[in-house]
Design a protein that fits this description.
By secondary structure, the chain is mostly beta strands. Helix content is about 15%, strand content about 35%. The protein starts with 17 loop residues before the first strand and ends in a 5-residue tail after the last strand.
């Protein structure tokens, strides 16, 4: 089951949650869409990001810190 990205940025921010962004990158290396959300930690953010990246190349950021990058999945 796949979770759809939120229609608007999460409003559930608390002191124990960090703000993350996932940037989906096209074949030319340009960002073609992004999602903003909150997660408890990097591990939770990576699970959310992996579900939302549409099998393509993507980067996960927490503010100015790059958390991880995914290459496109092969079929």
């Amino acid at each position: 089951m796949r979770n759809d990205p939120p229609k608007t940025p999460s409003q559930s921010f608390t002191k124990s949650r960090e703000q993350y962004r996932i940037f989906c990158v096209d074949g030319a290396g340009h960002i073609h869409k992004s999602f903003e959300f909150h997660a408890r930690d990097d591990a939770e953010a990576m699970k959310i990001g992996d579900a939302w990246r549409d099998h393509g190349k993507a980067e996960l950021w927490c503010r100015a810190r790059k958390v991880c990058a995914w290459e496109a999945r092969r079929n």
